[in-house]
């Protein structure tokens, strides 16, 4: 097969030959001929697998526009948490990775529901290998809590990305990039132990399946068990992942894979009350819980996917990708609300619930992208069509007969309560959600230093739902989401950009009578500078502004009718976010990696009051690692700090609305890894070095949740 030389040059420059979605196994082989500028390619390289690079520097990305562009060529803020950073920081879940990503903040609702935000808004747009995946925000099927062992890296594009996702979400789009088979046989066995009886075992094996190296497979298995700093709460997780990549013809690659995840939490529950019945603040220690010994949560998800890529001789790539998910969900618990008496602990209300749910989801994606010539210049274009279908059936059982007495709540722990006999399961949320969209995007070379990235997406969104007995249909058709960005290359190292995206974002927030709020509409603006300070060291600066109408705002002390555990919202207009971001990431010197970022997101309502106050206005994150040279070469050490400004909530207290807050705080982490032999290494991660006390949740139903105390983890790895 022969490729046009200009395409090969362009591909190498922007990382296309190592783009995240190229799935063939054989290694690239090139033969340069002096007599003619022709490159003979006998195979294609694997994706830009960051696990093959000892660096925090990102590669190419298609998450923002669908075009395989280098970060410097993308007119938006893009951050990548690479495999090396994931390994150095000992991040074992996708949620932990997101918490360390530049500009992303985390808050939790209870033992198993987490929320992530960027640029002042909650993140609701996720992709897996570039396939947009809707997330059921109200029901936890584990979509953002996968084990990190199956991922090569996570890409985060901050700001609206409606071109690919159709949502135009002004916060961020997160793309989870799975591991691919490697060119040669390799494997790793890992064992971890740590505080709270943490025990984790991981096996990761990749092997060619034929002598020609055209087919290879990879298998990952994880078993993770641990107690927690919360009384009577323990987690048990299993993850299995298998993928086969094959080059069917010199021009066609296929990838087939299956993921299986099972998460279980014994002692699942809510946060602890922040007030006594007399209005005073509680002072429970960090083991405080609001659960029972029979409460439990589980999710089980199986995801199968197929990805086919065909490469034309003119440099274009055609892709067809399909993913099918089957999910099961369960939550059996007692939710204590209200305020206990200071001495007796009595006076709290009880909500007994036994939820069961099933979900099936299909994602289909057709794309075509490649170069074209016009007016004597080389350009790129991409076209795509996306369809997702999400079918959900949630059922709820209440106690059969009288519910047990819950007794009192004293010193951060409730009295023992017997599990009730449960009645019949009745459907409470039976829904069918279908989203479709077609998009086109191009990168035009207007001149040597000036490029225009422009695109348009046409989207449809339909929801049929029976919600707690009420039948409702919602639909939005022919919604246009335009996108435009200009990039100017000052020289080979510095570029500037400006971009504009319109916002159209459906929201899973309900009025007091249970109706869904209309979608959010608005605009997103961004201006930035990107600089390549060294071969693998990038500096990114950005200022941004978003304007939104129809944004859901929580109504104080108001829940959805018939749902005492579901917050009610109202639509507001004129919400804005202004902010600034700075990121320095990559390799400072041989063996020395750095990821440093600062974010300011000033989110305001139309009246000028602060908005989304459970997420910080400012964040700073830094992590660095260094591998010594000479006799100390086997040793790598590192450390970092994560700082955020204060958060607060105006929440219901015994004496009316009260503001509860968590001030600014810092968490410091350290690591050290020693390579005893080429095959054997050990790593220590010390998290929250100074044992900082802070809330991960404040005011959610007048309750709070302590952040994780200081803990130590030891990992031993054997490579073969």
CATH topology: Maltoporin, Chain A
Nearest-integer average pLDDT: 88
Q: Give the helix proportion (percent range).
A: under 10%
Write down how many β-strands occur, each being a DSSP E stretch of 2 or more residues. 42
**What is the subunit arrangement here?**
single chain
Second CATH tier, the architecture: Beta Barrel
**Form type:** globular
- CATH homology-level superfamily: TonB-dependent receptor, beta-barrel domain
Structural notes for this entry:
There is one protein chain. With 720 residues, this protein is mainly beta. It has one domain (60-205, 226-259, 276-719): TonB-dependent receptor, beta-barrel domain (Maltoporin, Chain A), CATH 2.40.170.20. The two termini are 35 Å apart.
Compact summary:
With 720 residues, this protein is mainly β. The strands form eight sheets. The chain has a 22-stranded antiparallel barrel. Strand 15 (198-208) and strand 16 form a beta hairpin.
